[in-house]
Amino acid sequence: MHKTKKISLLGVFSIAAGAMISSGIFILPSLAFAQTGPSAIISYAMAGILAVIGMQSIIEMSTAMPKTGGDYFYIHRSLGPFVGTISGILGWLALSLKSSFAVFGFSEIVQTITGLPSNVTALILIVIFMLLNIRGAKEVAGLQIILVVFLIAIMILFCFSSIGHISAAHYKPFVPNGIAPVFITSGFIFISFGGLLKVANMAEEIEKPEKTIPKGMFLAVGVVTLLYAATVFGVIGVLDSGTLSVSLEPVAEAGFKTMGLFGYIIISIAACLAFITTANSGIMAASRYLPALAKDGLIPSFFAATRKGRKTPVPAIILTAGFMYFSLFLKLTMLVKISSTVILISYVLTNISVIVLRESGISSYRPSFKTPFYPFLQIFSIVVFSCFIFALGNTSLELIAGFILFCALVYVFYGRKHSSAEYALLHLIKKICDKQISEGVFENELRDIVFERDNIKKDELDHLVKTARVFDIDHALSFKSLILLILHKLTADLLLTESEIYEKYISREQDTGTCLDDFTAIPHIITPEGSPMRLIIVRCRDGIEFPSCKSIRCALVLSGPPENREEHLKILSQIAVTVGKQKFRDRWLSADTPQALKNVLMLERERHK
Fold it and tell me: How many alpha carbons fall within 13 Å on the CB side of residue 147?
């Protein structure tokens, strides 16, 4: 049963943009300016460009595997349960910290206006979000779109209002601390683009993910990066360096100078709305990592427990909320560094995953969007993001190393005993070592995901292929030898003796050849009434010599009773259309398991919806 997919292109854009327009622009400019001066403009633009480059691997896997769980699901299915455990817990950590950052921003604004201590406001807000998520409150797509349009409009209004108040002297010197801090600051503010992981988490609910995800994410990053750079340019031009370096509301303060009290109020309202939606949606997305890990047997099943009727993961939500509150006691710069480091690690792992999936040769891995310039773009992303991770400093690295060690212990003492998933890295190792160490479970999972993604309904041919016997022969043989080889697999329920079956196939081939071309043949016979339809799949790398053609590499041996004559002819037609394509032939010859051969037949078919 397919889930109803309701998120459109505008919805994807709104989710991604709404998750990015938050603390990254309303608070971070002052911290970025303190590190690198006016060249923070370049740092924001560079971070956006790198996000576009790095996220392409996330988009590719999202279109191949549009499943809830996002980057965790992709990394677990490609690199295995050990790395999956690390990825899942770090993904939970990343979105929890990003949400904490948003709660911090909101509580600081409340403290400025009312004097209420920020830690009290933060606790109240987190408790409210926790209760809303336990109750099962859902994000309203229409409200999210309205909010994003409002935020973008306010940012554009500020940018235009700042033009007449900009002081050129504020940009001098443009690079006061040298080039290195410009690059380091790009990594520092990368938390601003952490919201992109949320789109991957919701991929299963997106309409036509193969087209909608790439368009929506590229559009969101492009628009937000331009807004970031333009807003930071305006803030630096309006505020003097002394004010900007210590401000926790740089955009609101700049708005006060350009538009008066109205500017301060409207920007503060926009910031509060952005913080609230980012924090609430963040706790919702973060808490979904833990049930996904629990369902895969990597952490105790307790974390997959849900509230009756609402299906909300109560233990996961409570743990996420508690972690968010206590993370607020970290220094702000450390909170940002840890968040950015975790997000950068996720980008590194997703790029490694794409390389593993592509090189594994799994026939069912069929992304509708493929990252260009493979594998150079992935290698570039891995190197650059790794450099950023190390550039963010030893303290954040030590904390992350501690979390990774904790994840490793969780896997060793629990996950290893309760998880037995197959993954793409096994296929790659098998390909390198030429050993059969996988059973095709992951290939089948990918195949079923493609069927669900493309809304494909399985028919009689799919059933025949799924239940078919497969013979993978590595030496040349004759047609008669082929029939003798598979004869014992045909006699079980066809209501004929071995000699009768043999004579039927030989006579059929002599009367009318069954070769479709020089690559494929479909030997087929009519069996007695009451017998089932059967298909046997044969690949012969060196070729089968039929009476009418010399080197058949794909033989699909079909049998069926007279009452299924119409279905019999329909299947012959479907096969004929499928096997004539060059793409089918290439994938048929490169498939490395019997299950992969079946999946090639099922996935290369032209479907008429």
Answer: 27
